[in-house]
Amino acid sequence: MHVILRSHGAAQALEDASVLTALFSNLRTKSQIPQALKIYQDVRKDRADRAVASATSLKSVLHLPDGPEQVKRDQAMREVANGGPNPDLWGNAQWQEEVFSCDIFEIALIRAKTELGGGLEGALSCKL
Question: What is the model's pTM?
Answer without folding.
Answer: 0.72
